Amino acid sequence: MTPSKQSLKWLSLLLFAQVGLAVGLNLEADRYSSGSASDTPLLALDTGRVDRLLIEDGDGHQTQLLRQGDHWVLPQAENFPATPGRVDALLATLAALKTGWPAASTSGAAERFKVADDSFERRLTLRHGDKVLGRLYVGTSPTYRKENVRVDGKDDVYSVVLERVNMPAEVDAWEDKTLLTLNPDDIKRVELPDVTLVRNGDALQVEKLGAGEQTATDESKALLQRIANLTYTASAGKPQQTGDDKARSVFEVSLALKSGDKRDYRFTQPAGAKDYLLEVSGQPWRFRVSSYTLGSIKSDSRSKLVTAPAAKPADAAKQSQVDQKASS
Fold first, then answer.
1. Which of 44, 79, 117, 155 could form a disulfide with 73 if both were Cys (CB 3.0 to 4.6 A apart)?
2. Quick one: pLDDT at residue 311?
3. Measured between alpha carbons, how far is 78 from 133 in angstroms, rounded to an integer?
4. What is the pTM (predicted TM-score) of this model?
């Protein structure tokens, strides 16, 4: 074989290898970007069948959520309502997840990515009654808004678009914090311990004003907003089950609404506690309210909500003389 023929043979083999490599890489790229792996749901999940959801974290916290009709409640908190739409949004996100391309496919990878049976950031168990429909382990985060996950019973670990912040394992994080929210325009009357305000057009005015007195408009508006948007930190069980009725202080507020309904608030502070417990007429639960939140309402006394009449010039002169005598 002449040298030229031998060189031609090697060149032909090299070209054949390059073509084969290019075809192989192209097939792998197509499979990665649009092949069957990326179109396969991570969880074969019918969200309409899920009526129980258990969320656990690696620190021992867990939250149970139960579907009741078209809303979700928290059995650990006396069936306190969960934030509307939040559980359904999470289920929709889980149902939309695709397998993509595995970040790892070995049994040892579960520990490394914190998606093992006994080592995880979150473990989500979805049930219909007592039947487990799916279980997902959520582990480390490879990048912003993505989490490493593993489906129970499988070795493959996937990196998917998911945010751990949307699946807290603490019960109070799921509670509906808008349960006491009112439309300010629906409040007709507010009764505080030493002052009552009634609606007059678009604002509340102090009732039984004295001669020359006026309602402090800005303070009245601020009070209305604080009451209409009253917030609480967590539910506190049902009144008959808390066992802390011995309070060292009580503060009451009564509201009359345009609908004709009445809403009464009763704040009590258990001995030795910083926060207050709130009972609301028509609600079966107590609410835990911070001393800061209630303090902003308690400070709205009559003296703060009423602007005193300006002193007449003669009266001001007399008062000045009295002050001068007192200082001499």
1. 79
2. 57
3. 25
4. 0.79
CB-based contact 294:226 (threshold 8 Å): no
**Please, are residues 309 and 213 in contact by the beta-carbon 8 Å criterion?**
yes
pLDDT tens readout for residues 222-270: 999 999 999 999 999 988 654 555 556 799 999 999 999 999 999 999 9
Q: Which two tokens stand for residue 180?
A: 């006491």
Q: Which amino acid is at 130?
A: D
**Residue 266, H or E segment:** strand 262-270
**CATH for 184-307?**
2.60.40
Residue 47, helix vs strand vs coil? helix
Comparing CA positions, the residue from 170, 180, 150, 201 lying closest to residue 294 is 180
What is the reported pLDDT for 119? 96
For residues 57 and 124, give the distance between their C-alpha atoms in angstroms, rounded to a whole number.
Answer: 9
Of 134, 57, 46, nearest to 92 (Cα)? 46
- Check if the beta carbon of residue 171 is closer than 8 Å to that of residue 63: yes
Which helix H or strand E contains 323, and what residues bound it?
helix 313-327
Cα 3 to the chain's mean position, in Å? 78
The H or E element that residue 161 is part of is strand 158-161
Spell out the residues 6+ positions from residue 264 whose beta carbon is closer than 8 angstroms to its own.
252, 253, 254, 255, 280, 281
Where along the chain do its domains lie? Answer: 41-171, 184-307
Whether 157 contacts 149, CB under 8 Å? yes
Alpha carbons 142 and 160: distance in angstroms, whole number: 9
186 and 175 Cβ atoms separated by less than 8 Å: no
Sign of the Cα torsion 237, 240, 242, 246 reads positive
